[in-house]
């Protein structure tokens, strides 16, 4: 399926997949678990979004007893956390906010992927029960917590309602590609689906704080639309992300 090419390893991701890229294609390889098949989920979402959103095109998907394989086209550009992109932090902040507003404005009536809290909390419970949580990777404010403590806190503080839109699901700087002055597309869309907009806003806000600083994160909220943002939901969805 893939032509002979010079391939290079991509080592700056956190998905756990082996990732290689050539000038035209990207190949992901991931060990299977009994609980889920993340690359299959990503392939389904890429195929659904092909005519709707700027994302890679699936070339092939395959699976065997031990691994999943996903080959897709490569989008030009550099991730928003790349040092060259961060030479212009105000542009990165502005583009991220506007890209998420456009994504969240997409119609959801024909989206088959449900990422609402009922679904995500069920998945989180299964992951905790299966011992899949890396407790050493929790954010600093939860250093020393157990996965069970996070789960209990999620149940205790669950918001009363959801502002449902089409979400990326992991809207961090590495997952948006910059090509010149514009966002070229979204990558790593295995969690794309209908969810509360804060599922994206919370992770984007955290990513900007880490990569640029708290002032940029607050400016992001202003550009996105602070009237749409509930601070308690930002806290909640960062907490939920600890279990994924």
Task: Report a brief summary of the structure.
By secondary structure, the chain is α+β, with helices and mostly antiparallel strands. It has helices at 38-49, 89-104, 117-129, 147-156, 198-211, 214-224, 231-241, and strands at 8-10, 18-21, 25-31, 58-63, 67-73, 78-79, 164-167, 176-179, 182-186, 193-196.
Q: How does this structure look, described?
A:
- This protein has 244 residues and is α+β, with helices and mostly antiparallel strands.
- It has 2 domains: 8-73, Phosphorylase Kinase, domain 1 (2-Layer Sandwich); 78-241, Aminoglycoside phosphotransferase (APH), C-terminal lobe (Aminoglycoside 3'-phosphotransferase, Chain: A, domain 2), CATH 3.90.1200.
- Helices cover 36% and strands 19% of the residues.
- It has 7 helices and 10 strands.
- It has helices spanning 38-49, 89-104, 117-129, 147-156, 198-211, 214-224, 231-241, and strands spanning 8-10, 18-21, 25-31, 58-63, 67-73, 78-79, 164-167, 176-179, 182-186, 193-196.
- The strands form 3 sheets. Strands 1-2-3-5-4 form a 5-stranded antiparallel sheet, covered by helices on one side.
- Strand 1 and strand 2 (18-21) form a beta hairpin.
- Helix 5 (198-211) runs antiparallel to helix 6.
- The longest helix has 16 residues, at 89-104.
- It is globular.
- The two termini are 32 Å apart.
- 36% of the residues are buried.
- Residues 8-226 form the Aminoglycoside phosphotransferase domain.
- Mg(2+) binds at residues 175, 188.
- Keywords: Antibiotic resistance, ATP-binding, Kinase, Magnesium, Metal-binding, Nucleotide-binding, Transferase.
- Pfam families: APH.
- One of its GO terms (molecular function) is ATP binding.
């Amino acid at each position: 399926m893939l032509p002979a090419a010079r391939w290079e390893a991509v080592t700056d991701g956190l998905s756990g997949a082996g990732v290689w890229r050539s000038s035209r294609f990207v190949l992901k390889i991931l060990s299977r678990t009994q609980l889920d098949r993340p690359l299959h989920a990503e392939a389904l979402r890429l195929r659904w979004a092909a005519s709707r959103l700027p994302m890679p095109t699936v070339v092939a998907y395959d699976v065997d007893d031990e691994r999943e394989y996903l080959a897709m086209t490569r989008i030009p550009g550099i991730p928003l956390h790349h040092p060259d992109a961060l030479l212009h932090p105000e542009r990165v902040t502005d583009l991220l906010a506007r890209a998420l507003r456009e994504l969240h404005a997409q119609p959801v009536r024909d989206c088959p992927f449900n990422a609402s809290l009922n679904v995500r909390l069920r998945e989180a419970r299964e992951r905790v029960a299966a011992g899949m949580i890396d407790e050493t990777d929790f954010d600093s404010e939860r250093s020393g917590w157990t996965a069970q403590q996070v789960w209990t806190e999620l149940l205790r503080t669950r918001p009363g309602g959801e502002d449902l839109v089409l979400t990326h699901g992991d809207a961090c700087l590495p997952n948006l590609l910059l090509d010149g002055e514009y966002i070229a597309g979204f990558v790593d869309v295995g969690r794309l689906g209908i969810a509360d907009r804060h599922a994206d806003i919370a992770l984007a806000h955290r990513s900007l704080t880490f990569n640029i600083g708290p002032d940029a994160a607050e400016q992001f909220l202003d550009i996105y639309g602070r009237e749409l943002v509930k601070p308690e939901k930002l806290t909640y969805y960062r907490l939920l992300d600890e279990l994924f």
